[in-house]
Amino acid sequence: MWFVRVLGIWSLLAAMVALTIDGTKSLAGQGHVVFTTLGEHWFRINAASLNTFQAAVERHVYPVLWDPLIVSVLQVPSWIFFTGLGLLLYWIGRHRRRRDVFIN
Questions:
Q1: DSSP designation for 29
Q2: Is residue 32 situated within a structural domain?
């Protein structure tokens, strides 16, 4: 489970980077707050993979799944998505205490 915790930490680091990018854009934007969406980051990093993912979901999984669900997730600010994902992964990979069932 250590690998899941490491992925959670990396996701939290990605959230901090995305928040830093949005913060610097907001400071340079002369008074308005900027939140970059997950889809915009994905499009800037690799637009071809985003288009391939859309085509694969619409063609092989379920066409209606793309528009209401995945598009909504892609419109979430990146730092919120990665914070939630990181906390979830870190929680899943946590060390669980051993509980004594038989108490004397």
A1: T
A2: yes
Total Cβ atoms within 10 A of residue 11: 19
Q: Where in the sequence is the domain holding 43, given as residue range(s)? A: 2-92
pLDDT of residue 23: 92
Nearest to 3 by CA among 74, 69, 73, 93: 93
Q: Is residue 104 part of a domain?
A: no
Mean confidence (pLDDT) of the chain: 90
Query: pTM of this prediction?
Result: 0.82
- Domain assignment of residue 87, yes or no: yes
Residue 25 in any domain: the answer is yes
30 backbone φψ class: left, alpha, beta (φ>0; ψ -120 to 50)? left
Total domains in the chain come to 1
Paired residues of 37 in beta bridges: 77
Residue 66 to residue 56: CA distance in whole angstroms: 10
Predicted pLDDT of residue 104: 61
Beta bridge mates, 77: 37
